[in-house]
Every structure is written in C-alpha cells, then in structure tokens.
Amino acid sequence: MKIDSPAFGSLDVANNKVIEFPGGLPGFEDCKHFTLIEVADRAQEVAILQGVDRPEIAFSVTTPDLLGLQYEFALTEEEEALLGAARPEDIAVMLILRREDAGEASASPQSAQVRANLTGPLVINVATMRGLQKVIARLGCEVTLRPAD
Question: Residue 6 belongs to a domain with what CATH number?
Fold first, then answer.
C-alpha cells in the first residue's frame, strides 16, 4: 500500500508491516493502522510510528531498554486477548517520545528536552501485528533525557 507522509514523502508499505491498533490510540481513535519507519542515522535508537490511515500522524518511539529502564506492567485478560499474545517473546514495548522545542514556554535552546511517556506505553504483538496503548493511571512521572555536556 502507498501512503504520502508529510515527513517522509511517498512510502510503499507492505501489508505485513502494518500494525493494527483496534482501539486506535487515545486522542487518535480513528487512526487504527500504523507502520514503523527506522530513522536511517538512528536506526537502533529511534523509530517513527507512522500513521497509515492518517499519514499526518507520526510519533517518535523507542524501547525502554534503550533508556536504561527495566519497565514492567501487567496486561488485563482483555488486553491479552486483543493482542492475541501466545508467547511473551512476541511482545514488544515501545515508548512515545516528545521533544520540547525551544519555542515552548518551558524550554530554551539550552534546555530542550526529550520526554518519554511512561504512562502510555505501546504494546505490540510482533507475530500478529496487533497493538494497543496501555494507559497506566497510577504512574505519575516522565523520564527526561538531557544531552551530556
């Protein structure tokens, strides 16, 4: 299938590379299909979760281990059923990243930061290509990554 991404131009995406989020993502419930795009110079660190239904939607994502996090949470029976999770090794967890630009009220060029959303991890069954965004209400923090001086 072909999508026209504002950030990446025209992309050919194989059907087996499309991740279905049956419930969409919170705030983007109508966007149910995404694909992962590796960023060439950061392929092992950051990827882009590119909307297929709405190509203007894209999120930077990474894995918790690349942030040095041991990140564990439980899935409900309904979430396990939605994912079709038969084997733990088929499950991938990703965190959505957000960069505070210098133009934001709380940021300056020297203090621009990348924040990882720990309260809304993406859980993807890589075998079935089905995913969900787990909303964790009890965790009330973010991880802030600061560039080394």
Answer: 2.30.290.10
Query: pLDDT for 14-59, tens place per residue?
Result: 999 999 999 999 999 999 999 999 876 655 688 999 999 999 999 9
Query: At a CB cut-off of 8 Å and minimum separation 6, what does 99 contact?
Result: 60, 112, 113, 114, 115
Q: Is residue 56 part of a domain?
A: yes
The two tokens of residue 20 are 């279905």
In order, the DSSP letters of 71-112 are: ---PPPHHHHHHHT---GGGEEEEEEEEEPPTTSTT--TTT-
Is residue 148 situated within a structural domain? no
Whole domain around residue 87: which residue ranges? 2-142
The rounded distance, in Å, linking the Cα atoms of 76 and 73 is 10
Segments in the chain forming alpha helices (H) = 77-83
Position 149 in a domain: no
pLDDT, tens digit, for every residue of 75-134? Answer: 899 999 999 977 889 999 999 998 876 555 554 444 557 888 888 999 999 999 999 999
Which one, of 106, 92, 93, lies nearest residue 136 by Cα? 93
CB atoms under 10 Å from CB of 64, counted, come to 17
What pLDDT is attached to residue 101?
66
